[in-house]
Specification:
Layout: E1 3-7, H1 15-22, E2 26-29, E3 43-47, E4 53-57, E5 60-61, E6 72-73, H2 78-90, H3 96-106, H4 115-129, E7 136-138, H5 149-160, E8 165-168, H6 178-183, E9 187-190, H7 211-218, H8 220-229
């Protein structure tokens, strides 16, 4: 049964985002919903040079009500500025030397005027780095009429995998109408992701940071292997 996951195209997402990609046959990037200021669409959390968590944000130009795929970066030099923040923040991480060239190359050809497109490119290229098989679809390419909420999720899954399974975040238990999925002949399951711990250069472990944090500390091989074999957050990078 085909597994479908749906999520906004976040900027350099956390480990749980890629855990969901690794468990989906089709990953739909929800690029035509309303942009929310202060969301993970244009920012992510990393460790700063002082070892404390901080936000790494893409400056954007957006009007109230704009869809994510209409939001534009406000400064063309932001990719280099982000690299200038990442280097001192992670140069003491144990896998920095092996990881840095690959990460730096991800930023080289990002589109200057397309936030969603840039995020999609980063996500897809990180999946290549992590050797995660995936099929991405943009929600804006699907005909879902004016459906909203659960009705739209149902139509998206029906469009890409009739009779398939929708893999939802666990937070969906609190608001999703499971009956709508059953009535459409779809199976609804929830993720059981629990963030694993690993050694960070700054000391006490900080959870929920960008996947860049795991890559710089643990390396591509360890992160890739864990994402592909772990059935939940149990276990460690090894």
């Amino acid at each position: 049964m085909t597994v479908v996951a749906i999520h906004q195209p976040n900027y350099m997402p956390w480990l749980g985002y890629f855990w969901k990609i690794a468990r989906a046959d089709v990953f739909v990037l929800l690029d035509d919903v309303q942009y929310s200021k202060g969301s993970y669409i244009n920012r992510t959390r990393i460790l700063g040079a002082d070892g404390a968590p901080r936000w790494l944000s893409v400056p954007v130009s957006a009007r109230l009500g704009d869809a994510i795929n209409r939001v534009r970066p406000a400064a063309p030099s932001w990719p280099q500025r982000h690299l200038d923040v990442l280097r001192p923040g992670y140069r003491r991480a144990r896998s920095f030397t092996e990881t840095w060239p690959e990460i730096a190359s991800l930023y080289e050809h990002l589109p200057e005027s397309d936030l969603a497109g840039g995020n999609r490119l980063l996500i897809e290229r990180l999946c290549d780095v992590l050797e995660l098989p995936r099929r991405f679809v943009l929600s804006s390419s699907l005909a879902t009429d004016d459906a909203v909420g659960d009705d739209r999720l149902v139509r998206i899954v029906e469009a890409v995998a009739p009779g398939g399974t929708y893999l939802s975040g666990r937070g969906g238990r609190g608001y999703q109408d499971e009956r709508k999925f059953r009535d459409a002949g779809l199976r609804l399951v929830y993720t059981d992701f629990t963030h694993p711990e690993y050694t960070q250069w700054a000391g006490s472990f900080v959870s929920g940071l960008s996947i860049l944090d795991a890559l710089f500390h643990c390396g591509r091989v360890a992160v890739s292997g864990w994402l592909r074999r772990a059935t939940s957050g149990a276990g460690a990078f090894a």
